[in-house]
Amino acid sequence: MDKVTTVIKPSAGWRSIDFKELIRYRDLLWFLTVRGIKAKYAQSVLGVSWAVIQPLFSTLVFTVVFGNLAKIDSNGVSYFLFSFCALVPWTFFSATLTDSANSLVANASMISKVYFPRMVLPLSSILSKGVDFIIALLLLIVFLISYRFVPSWQVVFLPWIILVLLMTSLGIGMLLSAMAVQYRDIKHAMTFGVQLLMYAAPVVYPTSNVPEPYQQWYVFNPMVGVIESFRSVFLGTIAFPYEWLAWGTLTSSVLFVLGLFYFRKMERVFADVA
Amino acid sequence: MNVIEVKGLGKKYRIGKAEKKSETLVGSIVNGLKQPLENLRKIRSLTRLNDEEDIVWALRDVSFDVKEGEVLGIIGHNGAGKSTLLKILSRITEPSVGEVQIKGRVAALLEVGTGFHPELTGRENVYMNGTILGMRKKEIDRKLDEIVAFSGVEKFLDTPVKFYSSGMRVRLGFSVAAHLEPEILIIDEVLAVGDAEFQRKCLGKMQDVSNNQGRTVLFVSHNMGAVETLCHKAILINRGTLEGIGQTDEIIKQYLTKEIKYFRKKRESSELNFFRSIVLLNHELEETDIFSHTEKIGLEVEIQLAEWSNDLELALSVKNSVQRRIFTKNIQLQEFTQGEGVFCFRVFFEPGYLMAGEYTFMVYINKPRVKAFDLQESICPFTIVDTGSVFSKYGSKMGDIFPPDTEIKLVGIND
């Protein structure tokens, strides 16, 4: 008879992804994602509408505070669209960050009782937030149509932009979730950390407002490339920022690989410290 | 063919050290400021197991083989390392040393209903739980009707699980697990759930899995009756090391004799009221664990009381081999003493009640409706041998106790 042989012994060093195993557990990934979505909107009157309400209200507040009162430059388009366009990827980023960082701690009881590839937990957090992202993106398109904006031809790069967004979220998410199992400080730092991070990205202001000498460092933040590309494609605020997006791709790849390997290295002690 | 080979397996954990406390105000302020650093060192050390001083081996140098189709019982006291062994075998945690080779698909049941989410419906949770245990969606689609029928919650399948009673939740969880079809099944004490009827159903299912489907099963339990009926072979684990491996009945005997020894010597306990020693005696005051059915069963119990109350009672129960209580004797302690101290009681049970078979005692000091002190389950195992009563030819198949005296009258003959 042909049987799989599993060898269990102390492991050492760094490990990459076990794709074969992830594929075998794809149904689990699917149901965890569905669970994440359903549980989030269960017993709420507005249900999935919350996915739209959150970025929409933030945009309204930003428009009043930063657009009308502080009169921050918005590259010549309405401040409302300017900030909403940034909040669509940003809300996804901050939500996945918080959720995936918590994913291991929140499922500690599962980790200590059953074996499954641990990576499905942060992965499913990202996937379930993906639904909110798509809904917000559709709303953005509705706004664009009503304001009669036509996206530039660089809209074909959208998959590239989203890939950078995904790698950044997943990379930091895996890094933080693996750390949060052992150091619960991460959980406390998360809530305000994400808020602070928002000011390190061009959400409420354009990158052109950042003084020249600092800009070369600023663009290492992968969210700069993502957000500015979004605005360039949909609103035509600036010429498509190839260079910024390239730097973002580099840092997001580094973050992704770093997060991945750290996660895989720490994975073996999750059940002991969770 | 060996499907599981365990070689020199060991797992170490770190135990916490007592914290330094300062007695001066300045000292405590300094300590408070140092606290984050101290915390960092402590949390980091959870995953660094290099210095030897505060390390404990939960499992050390354990080796054994399991053959295909074998049902292996794993027994031992609480904290002996059984669960650690299961966690390593099911890949939840890694061993510190040693190696295990497993041939075939493994499913481990360390808990019933893992991954259940209260907001999701029963149906959704069946899929959730099933996939966590390694089933494919298609497999669950195929077995859904069977799973639901086995659990008996058909009517509530589309109700969120948070509205289920705890019994329903457990039944649904077990049904999913019972329909796994791995080549190797690892089970930890899951039979200790649900009501009596459901437990019987589970035991039946387990027997079916091992006998008829020829699968390999590893089974951890404190229920010696279940281990005895289900397992061909057993291993005994004590303080992290393998103490015995062999025929189930011999290993169980080895385990139970250990427990007698444990209670013969004077013990200390952190409980306020506790048993110092418990010994079985025959009518000549000799220590023994075998009685004939015509012999008195004596129990010498030494208790230490540090928290007196007038309603304290000493409860002595006799349980049969599947841990069912047969009878309980309550002794009001205020009839003998009015306060704290160390007391030694000798209690004799009259003969003529118990049929031939294996029994154990369950003892505890009870403050009725408030608290049970030092509950000791399954201690002082003893055997009743039937040396020629009317019932001896029936063995213990008749039940556990002799029938009471009965009045029988012939009230008529119909032809």
Structural class of chain B: alpha/beta
Number of helices of chain A: 12
User: How many structural domains of chain B?
Assistant: 3
Please provide the count of β strands of chain B: 17
CATH architecture label name of the largest domain in chain B:
3-Layer(aba) Sandwich
- How many strands in all of chain A? 1
Oligomerization state? heterodimer
- The helix-and-strand class of chain A reads mainly alpha
Distance between the termini of chain B: 64 Å
Which runs of chain B of at least 5 residues are low in confidence (pLDDT < 50)?
none
Q: Level of helix content of chain A?
A: 55-70%
CATH class of the largest domain in chain B: Alpha Beta
- Tell me the fraction of residues in β-strands of chain A, as a range: under 5%
Give me the number of helical elements of chain B: 8
Q: Output the CATH homologous superfamily of the largest domain in chain B.
A: P-loop containing nucleotide triphosphate hydrolases
Question: What characteristic shape of chain B results from the CA principal axes?
Answer: globular
Mean pLDDT of chain B: 82
Order of helices and strands of chain B: EHEEHEEHHHEHEHEEHEEEEEEEE
Quote the distance from N terminus to C terminus of chain A: 38 Å
Q: Your description of this structure?
A:
The complex is a heterodimer of chains A (274) and B (415). Chain A is built from twelve helices and one strand; from the N terminus they run βαααααααααααα. Chain A is mainly α and 274 residues long. In chain A, helix 4 (79-106) crosses helix 10. The longest helix of chain A is centred in the middle third of the chain and has 28 residues, at 79-106. Chain A is globular and about 65 Å long. Chain B is an alpha/beta fold. Chain B folds into three domains: 17-53, no CATH class; 57-256, P-loop containing nucleotide triphosphate hydrolases (Rossmann fold); 267-394, Coagulation Factor XIII, Chain A, domain 1, CATH 2.70.50. In chain B, 26% of the residues lie in helices and 33% in strands. In chain B, helix 3 crosses helix 5 (166-178) and helix 4 (137-151) packs across helix 5 (166-178). At the A-B interface, strand 1, helix 2, helix 5 and helix 12 of A face helix 2, strand 4 and helix 3 of B. Strand 1 of chain A pairs antiparallel with strand 4 of chain B, so a sheet runs across the interface.
